[in-house]
Design goal:
Blueprint (H helix, E strand, L loop, with lengths): L10 H6 L24 H12 L3 H7 L22 H11 L3 H5 L23 H8 L11 H5 L86 H14 L13 H18 L12 H16 L4 H6 L5 H15 L4 H23 L11 H10 L34 H8 L8 H15 L5 H8 L3 H10 L7 H18 L4 H7 L8 H8 L8 H16 L18 H31 L6
Helix pairs in contact: 2-3, 8-12, 9-12, 9-13, 10-12, 13-14, 15-16, 15-19, 16-17, 16-19, 17-18, 21-23, 22-23
Length: 609
């Protein structure tokens, strides 16, 4: 029988099916190794294969599991994560055990508690890679307690959760990396993380088994580290209690969140939000709990140092799961007092310190809020709103309109560009927006001028300027929090308006209207200026030229130019951006005067200066 994914009848699903390999109908195994309650399915395959005297890849075929044809070995679909219908059928026929039992050995067991499977499409395995980065579970690899493995080679499923930190039975920190090969446990190899199914022949599950030599066969060298002999680090009882609480909720138990009854899924949502908040606070999180293992404290400091040195993309780094058992232990120890607080009054002081620390780090380094868009349970959100620092009241400090010659504002709405002049920004505004990209700062200044011109809100200012609402919201919601001297900021915006009036007002609104449909500069127009320079004219250059004309005369962001508002056939967004960069750097200096003159003619007398 040919294995296939049970997916929606869509074009994507049809393209996906040929990646599956033929799976023979499973036969009943002569013996079946009894799975342990809570055992990981992938580890059970290794243990059962050893008991039968065959390789794990051979057992996968004998079990009738649904596999990828493109894999160099027998690797089941969503192995250890989700059990497909075809794999469930094969297991039932080969072992006689119900599919419900096998599903409880997969990470899907935690779908309603510790893990969020919203981003995983079981019809397309390509989504597994994205989910593995965003989810709080290890798709390839596992943590482990060497003392548990000394009692028998049973790997527990919860060790694959990224909230797994300490063994509640032996009171030791879990192990991530094999000291023998330096590779994460059960990863398979340092390069391509494929787990341990690539091994041919029999192996001892009591040993590490990661591949450290050749690619396959006789050239492959397997790590012989005895797992039960890996050294361990003792952890304090308070951390063991925190781990027991996490496991209880992960298995469906109920626990209050700051004294309020919540579902397990909401409880873990709160845990993820608190972890992100502590990371966002960095070294401003305050004193660490007494008794925290030095390795856990070091992991927290290393993470904070890394995020401080590379602030770009810090939002993603504060949201991912703990990268090691040591970091998980440190984070659990820090957030446990809030998770177990009897009420909001007890949790408030801790949250207040973390929120203030995160706000300080945000203003000093990036200015953006790394927690924006991250789900926060209402019970925690209510406490955070009550005790957190107030945002800069930029709109509340809006000064009185400076009258122009006709009694209105110095710069009326029709004369405001989406992005203010770069020189004006550097000389007057940049000092009030530390750590801000110039393009974003010029956009906020344009919105601020629109506020002075009469717009009643930041959203209204975006409408007045014909600006993309998402871009406007992003800068108005984040950049204003970087402004320390609010009156000084508005005084600088006033100064920009006075400069613009002194240079003579331009009807930018009219220009945006005239050029709203400019998607290409005609081929013959560009040919007249490119041919003498020995440059060929392509349709891509015609569109890049149109984008330049639009941004040059409207004062807008070239990324919002009409030329980029329609799809480019066969051109990726990255290639499009690279083409624009090359156009600006190499071709524009040769043709800018002629292109500008063509734009003036296109605007005509009704387009303003």
């Amino acid at each position: 029988m040919v294995g296939h994914a049970r997916v929606r009848e869509s074009r994507a699903a049809i393209e996906f099916r040929p990646l599956l390999s033929a799976v023979p109908r499973a036969r009943r195994l002569p013996t079946v190794v009894s799975p342990g309650a809570g055992e990981s399915f992938s580890a059970w395959v290794d243990r059962a294969a050893f008991d039968l005297g065959i390789g794990p890849g051979q057992l996968v075929r004998a079990l009738g599991l649904e596999c990828r044809a493109s894999s160099p070995s027998a690797r089941p679909m969503f192995f250890g994560v989700v059990l497909s219908g075809e794999s469930a059928r094969g297991l039932r026929e080969a072992t006689g055990l119900p599919a419900s039992m096998w599903r409880r050995m997969h990470l899907e067991r935690y779908a309603a508690t510790a893990l969020d499977f919203a981003g995983l499409d079981t019809g397309r395995e390509t989504t597994l890679r994205t989910w593995s980065r965003q989810g709080w579970a290890q798709v390839y690899g596992s943590r482990a307690c060497p003392l548990c493995l000394a009692d028998g080679p049973v790997w527990w499923l919860w060790w694959r959760l990224e909230t797994a930190a300490a063994c509640p039975v032996h009171g030791v920190l879990l192990v991530d990396v094999c000291p023998g090969c330096g590779i994460r446990l059960r990863r398979g190899s340092a390069g391509s993380p494929r787990g341990l199914l690539e091994r041919g022949g029999e192996f001892d599950p009591a040993r590490c088994g990661n591949r450290v030599g050749g690619r396959s066969g006789a050239l492959a060298v397997r790590c012989g580290q005895v797992l039960a002999e890996i050294p361990t680090v003792a952890v304090p009882g308070v951390l063991v209690d925190a781990q027991r609480l996490v496991l209880s909720v992960a298995n469906g138990g109920r626990a209050p969140l700051v004294g309020e009854p919540v579902t397990p899924a909401v409880w873990f949502e709160g845990l993820r939000w608190l972890v992100a908040l502590v990371r966002a606070a960095g070294d401003q999180v305050g004193p660490l709990p007494v008794g925290m293992p030095p390795v856990a404290a070091a992991a927290l400091m290393d993470g904070a140092r890394e995020r401080a040195q590379t602030p770009v993309g810090v939002g993603a780094r504060v949201r991912h799961g703990p990268v090691s058992a040591a970091e998980a232990a440190g984070l659990l120890a820090v957030v446990a007092p809030v998770l177990t607080a009897p009420d909001s009054d007890a949790a408030g002081p801790l949250l207040a310190g973390w929120l203030e620390g995160a706000a300080g780090v945000r203003r000093a380094r990036t200015g953006s809020n790394p927690l924006r868009g991250l789900a926060c349970p209402p019970v925690l959100d209510a406490v955070a709103r009550r005790v957190g620092p107030r945002a800069s009241r930029v709109a509340g400090a809006l000064p009185a309109v400076v009258p122009g010659p006709g009694g209105g504002p110095v710069v009326p709405g029709w004369a405001v560009p989406q992005l203010i002049d770069p020189v004006d920004y550097r000389e007057l505004i940049a000092a009030h927006l530390p750590g801000t990209a110039e393009l974003s700062g010029r956009r906020l200044a344009g919105l601020a001028l629109a506020r002075l011109a009469g717009a009643g809100s930041w959203r209204g200012a975006a409408v007045l300027l014909g600006m993309d609402a998402a871009w406007a919201a992003r800068v108005s919601n984040t950049l204003v929090q970087r402004i320390g001297d609010v009156p000084g900021f508005w005084s600088a915006v006033d100064a920009v308006a006075v400069r613009m009036a002194g240079r003579g007002l331009v009807d930018f609104a009219r220009r945006r209207e005239v050029l709203a449909d400019l998607r290409e500069v005609p081929h013959d127009v560009l040919y007249e200026v490119c041919h003498p320079a020995g440059r060929p004219v392509t349709w891509q250059r015609c569109r890049h030229a149109a984008a330049w004309v639009w941004q040059h005369f409207t004062g807008g962001d070239p990324r919002e130019a009409p030329a980029y508002g329609v799809p480019w056939p066969g051109v990726t967004a990255e290639s499009q951006r690279e083409g624009w960069r090359k156009f600006r750097a190499s071709l524009l200096p040769l043709i800018e005067p002629e292109l500008s003159a063509w734009g003036v003619g296109l605007l005509g007398s009704g387009g303003g200066r």
